[in-house]
Structures
1.
Amino acid sequence: MPIPEETIQQILGSTDIIELIEGYFPLQKKGQDYWACCPFHSEKTPSFKVSASRQGYYCFGCQAKGNAIGFVMEYESIDFPSAVRRLADRAGIAIKEDEYDKKTTKENLLKKKIIHINQTASLWFHENLLKSNSAEARAAREYLKERKIDIQIAKNWTIGLAPENGNIFINWCKSQGFNNEQMVASGLMSYRDQEEFSKGVYSRFRNRIMFPLHNDYGDTIAFSGRVFTPQNRLAKYVNSPETLAFKKSNVFFGLNKSKRSIAKKESAIICEGQLDLIRCFENGIENVVAPLGTALTEKHVNLLKRFIGQNGEVVLCFDSDSAGYKASLRAYEEISKVGVFIRALQLPDNHDPDLLITNYGPEKFIDLVKSAKAFHEYQIETLSGQLNLNNPRDRIQFANELSITISQVNDPIARDGYINDVAIRIGISADEFRKRVVNSFNKKTSQVSTSTNEPKEHDIINVEQDVEILIKLSLTDADTKKWIRNSININDELKSLKNFDLLSELFKSLPSSEEPEDINAFISSKDSHIATFLNDIIMKDYTHLSLVDAKKSLIRLKIKSLQEKIDLNKTFSRREGISNEEILTITSKVESQRKELLDFKKALTNIDESRD
Ligand SMILES: [Zn+2]
């Protein structure tokens, strides 16, 4: 049964579209109407109009239009009944569940379930942290106390604790009526065996302090779990895997709380960690966001821009070490694409915002934000500490690095000002430096146009299970490590694999032992996107795997890559205008590749037989 027309009218009657949309991003009042940059297409000047009298929106750029329900459908990518439901919730109007559910698709239902599971689990973790008498709960409370996170703050952010014994949590989930499939879909559990689901699930988060993650609308969609015991063996933070409800690339920690302040101030401070953000927010600095330990993506930036608005700014607040500087360069590159003003602040050595505010009070941090300089000046300052401007070679490096940054500034007047600034600083003529900027710009655009389909360095790494098994065993299993060191010629044997770069880099420098401390140190030495990826693999429960499994995984990967080559050659030999000579060459190549393939398959069976 569809939702009755009367109910829909009632919902629309109780919803003010201006207030609704301002909950997502700011609108500017001009005359009778309200304006913003359109959320449905990319633009730099506002052509998205919202009318209070008509209770509707219209975009002059892409012709998107509709009422409050239409807006929620478009913006949240949900169907009509879900949008009605959301607005009904907001307005406090009841819709009978069965009327609503009939029209929703299976995927939407699962997404709803995922959010429900994460939401109820967050309350359970929270309760567990505050009330449990277990040793780990006491240790977690002690840890938070030391970090100056009191009970009120823990309540404000629904901070929780995942118990050490994962079964306690699994049993609770079962008591709530969640089945294995739903729990795995929620990202809180994984299957013990990817091929045999009947072997059950395990809890991904064990003995970790849990920070719930929200979309900008406020739904609980995932978690970030933090280790807190001194013998911390694993990655500091682990996030839920991506699910129907959670995509790392467009979620900021805290945005659901900070969006109003960001919109009001037209300014967002980007800091690195969750505790930094909480500390800022709790001390009245509310316009803060934190990405989830991953590099900023275009989606992050577009999301943020909706709240900052056209003339807004971003203040980068990264660690003062070289990793922090690199991260700020990457962030700058992504953010400058949408043309907002970017400043960066210099934190004192060995201080993050959390420590700074705890030690010196919020005023000190507010001062640093106020005096944060335009990005190129921050860069000059940082590089001046690393390079010697009296040395000609250093001076060239200095000029090159800055020319890249400045070439990304869209506004010509600002760009020219920066060029003059830097030229004076390095002691070369403005014209000379301008040439470098133009060169950097051209290099950049030619790279972009030729490599749009290439995966970016910071893209989420996605690999097949065999690669995961190889990596996991190479780190945690002594036999496998010995085999890799002694019997694998990395350049020869792995060359054909799709993940050659990744694997060869890892295998060339494996940690010295299987002790968790060594593995942890090894992982921490990697770039953050690689570290996150490795941690996710270490967390996976590939139990009972040993050297034979690593051997099999490698052979399966070789088979796959060979098969792809054979397929490619076959396609190639069928293309138009190919000469007979070429066909012959390809055929003989395919022939030898087939032989190689058979050998691999035989090797695979041999391993299996010797195992039985
Ligand atoms: Zn539009």
Note: Residues 580-611 form the longest helix (32 residues).
2.
Amino acid sequence: MAAQGAFALGKSSPDLFRRRVLWIALAVMAVFTLSYLSHQRHEDLQTANPLAVSPAHESEKVEEVGEGEDMEQMEQLETMEPEPTWTFVTGRDDMNYGLTDEQCDIAFPLLYQELDRARDHLVELNRTIKERDVHVDRKGSYDGRTHGEFQCMIHDGEVSQLLLSAFPFSYSNFTTTLTDLQQLYVIKEVHGEPDRSRGLAALANMYRAISSMGDARRLIPNVEFTFDIEDIAMEGEHNKERIRWTWARPKENPWLWPMPDFDGWSYPDDGVASYVQFREDVAELETNFTRGWYDKPQQLSWRGSFAQNGDLRRALVKAASGKSWSDVKPIDWHDRKDLMNMQDFCKFQYVAHTEGNSWSGRLRYLHICDSVPIIHKLNYNAHYYPLLIASGPNQNYVEVNRNFSDLVPKMEELLADPERARAIAAESTRVFRDRYLTPAAEACYWRRMFRTWRSVMDFEPKTYYIHKDGTRKRRGVSWERFSFRQEKSFEHGFFVEDKIKDEEPE
Ligand SMILES: *[C@@H]1O[C@H](CO)[C@@H](O)[C@H](O)[C@H]1NC(C)=O
Ligand SMILES: *[C@@H]1O[C@H](CO)[C@@H](O)[C@H](O)[C@H]1NC(C)=O
Ligand SMILES: *[C@@H]1O[C@H](CO)[C@@H](O)[C@H](O)[C@H]1NC(C)=O
Ligand SMILES: *[C@@H]1O[C@H](CO)[C@@H](O)[C@H](O)[C@H]1NC(C)=O
């Protein structure tokens, strides 16, 4: 609020000196906030248990960090750090897209592991993100099908340019600016595989995460990035070190930055509707089981097509065939026989998950069920998969081999020990449905993604490009306009071609 007030004052005053003083005040506040946040982030990394979100654990963490560190500095940090007066309450906060950075840290301390990993990978190599890293693929840089790609920018327009000219030296060290001015732009779209609606869903999610920030105290940096909407984002690419935002990454590819997949907006099928509506539908369905999990049939549910990852999926169907605990069936999208609505998986005590072309977005839906997830060893990581725990007191799923050779003994073990199975389901709903997969958590992840990306970005995004004759043209199309674009519009009573072109000079 204070920052916003200062900004307005500075603008209305013609006195340049006074304006500069205000900018300095603003800059000092930005540094202070940044250093506070970076301390917070380092602490997140110290926590081993994803469930340790209580204030008691916070103080333990500080002691751990203190070993071998400058104790004086640690004491300072401790006294500077306010006691968390706020805690995340499911049912009150899970739909809040606009939690502050501090609230995001308190509520979801272990959400950002994939982002920290991606950043650390670059830092270890003394590598930064250059303009060429965010340029969409050039012809000849890949084989096979063209991937759908979106090159995007989040920018506060002229404000940072003004700051830059007022304080060229010191400002270049700051990576954040006022949020409530931030705009989302699409610089370039490459039409390719698969359907572009997935990209539009990601953009809508980002837009929501940005526009939910109600006041200037919350910070989102200027960033430029490219995301690839292909399931297998590195397929056909020649450059093994290609950096992209993707739905998921093979565990052995450290260059990709997992973003929340498009399912966080909506699964592209009317049977599921939007993610938020799906959560509501499941909540309603669960009320039918008056004794909760115990009232559900002691069976494992799965449906899927062999068109993707056929060998793996056939192994599941084979392992489960003829078992009284099995409701596992393949489907064929041509006749749609044996189809099951997504929410109906939740009517079983056990839900099986299989990867698809690469990762499968279905897991986040299964994680909304009060059921025990049975998951084969995964080759891909989506943004929240570091939170999966396969053993110990905080076990939240049951892991089986990729050939499902151990499915039968593991199912028999669970069926013989319902208390243990029930505890795994309860842990799954607590960690995923009620915390790390809430819409609130996802908005926090997006904003942290912008910030973590910016921390290794080595250029300032440009809002204009300059033609040879010196005239300048705005880069990109603002999301508000882009989301309405179509080949032809009928706005004025007759069809008009869309004249907006993404092309920019090389
Ligand atoms: C890191 O990269 C920068 C810029 O390329 C270079 O100037 C610097 O010497 C490098 N540092 C190390 C430790 O390699
Ligand atoms: C800004 O960064 C430069 C180079 O990294 C450094 O030498 C300088 O001290 C920094 N300035 C401030 C005000 O932190
Ligand atoms: C709950 O049970 C009632 C009665 O059997 C049924 O009509 C209704 O469709 C069920 N609701 C859901 C969401 O499954
Ligand atoms: C199934 O996978 C496990 C673990 O990778 C392996 O040890 C086992 O030999 C495999 N079984 C068959 C029948 O391939």
Note: The mean pLDDT is 83.
3.
Amino acid sequence: MCHSGAMHSRRGETYIGGDYSIPTGMEPDVHYKKNIHCVDCHTTGEKGMGDKLRKANCQSCHIEIEEAHAKSIHKNLDCATCHVNELRGYQVVIWGPGLVAGKESPFKKYSLYYGIQSPPVLMKDQKGKWMPVKVFPHSVGNIKPEVKPSERLMFRWPKGEAKDPYYIVGTFNIGANDKHLLWIEIQQASHPYGKGRSCESCHKEKQIATSTWEYMDDQGTEDTFKGGYKITADKNSLKITDMKNTTPIKVSEGYKLEDFVSWLFLKDKWQMSGDFSIKAEKDKYKKYLMLSKSIDREIKALDNYTKNKDKKIQKRFKELKGIALHNEDMAMELIQEFKIKKQTNQK
Ligand code: HEC
Ligand code: HEC
Ligand code: HEC
Ligand code: HEC
């Protein structure tokens, strides 16, 4: 497995899912199920997959959809914004005293808070294009200097080589392990592709996502424990709240809660201001919502009609469907054309 790492939101294992995901059992990417390989999207350069490669190419297979999408009301959304539904892997990352390679260290990474975050929060990248992201709290103890909060959402690569944003929350005292430096880690999500999200799941007053996790590290406690949190993003802020454990934490000898569960003392700190709302003018939204409902009805009917027809008609319908699902303005006319042809065929 190249580019492995199921704990991150966009590695090979998040494409394959199943036993390769953590927790296991994630629905694999639709492409994986169709036997499509990494390099079908990640075209390789002379030096292999690492050469060109962060970018992926969809055109060879979805050209009509790409074109329809590029002229739609959602042209400012990356395909993944609608088609990635769930994120797994790390949900909380804490650094504190512990054993690293058998030796005592002030910076043991307690990252095995494995879980599921859904649906992905949506954010704009450096160029203002919407993408799905995984948002999760980070804290490092044993920090000496005071660190100021970021002024706003920051990008590690302002020129856009990668799109991951972050936000430094600042340093805090909790009575152990010196200061704790907190930040909100945000990662662009790229796999797995699945069904498109519904209008209603995005067009709400607030974006709300939930994370549930289980602590799997073998330090700090001998048992595992479970918990979760909520992410809320709206026109004023992004907040991680309701952080809690839902089963008891039994601390092992030689460890303190502040070492590997420091978030217990920092619960409502992971917050930032900013506009994270999804805007659509009310009347326009209503109009498109109605339109998309009638498009869905038409497509369903045609789906039934084409089922037993020859390959050529099926292929034509598939193209129409792809376009109609991604551009409400083009849909009705194309559907009418298809129906007229259908009638002449029947005669
Ligand atoms: C259906 C197309 C598709 C397939 C197949 C696919 N990926 Fe991706 N992958 C993407 C897209 C799209 C991105 C996001 C690229 C971007 O926005 O820059 C991505 C991102 C990534 C990244 C992150 C790159 C970065 O910027 O850090 C890695 C690593 C990756 N894919 C590995 C894999 C591996 C390994 C496989 C096969 C097991 C695979 N991908 C299969 C579409 C695909
Ligand atoms: C080698 C061909 C190929 C490439 C390259 C490819 N796809 Fe696909 N894609 C498919 C096939 C086959 C399906 C199955 C459904 C279908 O037949 O349309 C599919 C399905 C999908 C779906 C439908 C998910 C659903 O269940 O509704 C999405 C979304 C999608 N692809 C996005 C992408 C994106 C984004 C890229 C580029 C990063 C990409 N694909 C690259 C062949 C490809
Ligand atoms: C605004 C949301 C949205 C965006 C953005 C979006 N899709 Fe979709 N897509 C949907 C919905 C909804 C469906 C229908 C439900 C399903 O099959 O997933 C769909 C279906 C599909 C299908 C399956 C079509 C079929 O024949 O059943 C493919 C392939 C696909 N999308 C590819 C893409 C690609 C490629 C992009 C980017 C160019 C993209 N989508 C962007 C919402 C979206
Ligand atoms: C994955 C989330 C998502 C889904 C699903 C989605 N939208 Fe949107 N929609 C957005 C975002 C984000 C914007 C803002 C686009 C921008 O900033 O350019 C938007 C914008 C709009 C707009 C305003 C466009 C404009 O030009 O003013 C309308 C209308 C709209 N959506 C209707 C719909 C309808 C109807 C559906 C279902 C068929 C839908 N949306 C599905 C995220 C979504």
Note: The first strand starts at residue 87 and ends at 90.
4.
Amino acid sequence: MARFTLPRDLYFGKGAIENLKSFKGKKAMIVVGGGSMKRFGFLQKAEDCLKEAGMEVALFEGVEPDPSVETVMKGAQAMLDFGPDWIVAIGGGSPIDAAKAMWIKYEYPDCTFEDMCKVFGIPELRKKAKFCAISSTSGTATEVTAFSIITDYSKGIKYPIADFEITPDVAIVDPDLAETMPQKLVAHTGMDAITHAVEAYVSTANSNYSDPLAIHAIEMIQADLVDSYNGDMAARDRMHDAQCLAGMAFSNALLGIVHSMAHKTGAAFADYGAHIIHGAANAMYLPKVIAFNAKDPTAKKRYGVIADYMNLGGANDDEKVDLLIKFLRKMNDDLKIPHCIKNYGADSYPVEQGFVPEEVFLERLPEIAKNAIGDACTGSNPRQPSQEEMEKLLKCCYYDTEVDF
Ligand SMILES: NC(=O)c1ccc[n+]([C@@H]2O[C@H](COP(=O)([O-])OP(=O)(O)OC[C@H]3O[C@@H](n4cnc5c(N)ncnc54)[C@H](O)[C@@H]3O)[C@@H](O)[C@H]2O)c1
Ligand SMILES: [Zn+2]
């Protein structure tokens, strides 16, 4: 028995944000990030539409990229003070994810961050408020997913909160918001999206419901990501839909160890100035994990199917897996993303010697590997890595060496 859950309503296409005007409620709290939504006028637009719907509106501004537990607690307090019956989160994955966690704490003030992290253990929400997410990046698809990623900076670890309770009630996928993304953000979020689709397709929780979404997303991203990066706005608009389809797939089929590793390396070297951006981490690790997972016959076959849909050629599954890996590595080159942590430099550009010194990486490796194995995304990966295998895999991701185990 399985479950497939999506938002009740999804508004898409240019100008979709205007649908806020039809919302019914008394008080809306808008949760937003550091300034891009304000700068480009989308915050004002959302506020105006909600006011036109007859609602009193309050703002919670300034959610940082990779939001912290502290921000979640502050936002929840603001909600408790204001008492909204709608929470409207607008921006990238960070403000939307933060708002989801604030929502839990708003509905259940006694719930601790630790309680929230119990996978599929969130109590029933919507007693106080409904939730609408309006995404401005084309990657996380958090507007349709059952996930929220919050960082505990005291531990240097990202924790996924996972429960269908936090799947938004309404998703607004308006490509106008994605058009203002700078090039780097397009690259990172786009590689995040293709990783979602590939991991969902080979996940042990894949299904007839998630497969078509994942495959179609992969085909669209193959067609449009690099053009979107190079400034083609029609491709940018299509990418906004593609990433959302990938999100619908992975929210239900779950992910795999690319994400486990990204979650556990993302903030692990922050003290060296290396915040490994989520999408860049995925882009570096995905080809390595494909090589590792392809030792599992079912996964290998499924990667072969992906390669077929992408028209990559190959006479057998081994060749198809190789071609898929080559294709993804070429995508990294086109998007100027490094292939490994060793070469991960400022703004994620490839450099000769990146932020993370070799000895620091090696010293922290056992702990990171242990944490990655324990990540919520590991359970649905087609191959369960041992501690030794995870350490070897992470080393391949550091040095860009071949995965032959
Ligand atoms: N909930 C999920 O299912 C899920 C899935 C994958 C990743 N994540 C998490 O989401 C976070 C990353 O989110 P993200 O990649 O969307 O980036 P983000 O929300 O962290 O935003 C990154 C930067 O881009 C700016 N920005 C956002 N939209 C813009 C636009 N349209 N124009 C100009 N600037 C814009 C922001 O102001 C910010 O400075 C990470 O914490 C990651 O772990 C969540
Ligand atoms: Zn992701």
Note: The chain is about 50% helix and 10% strand.
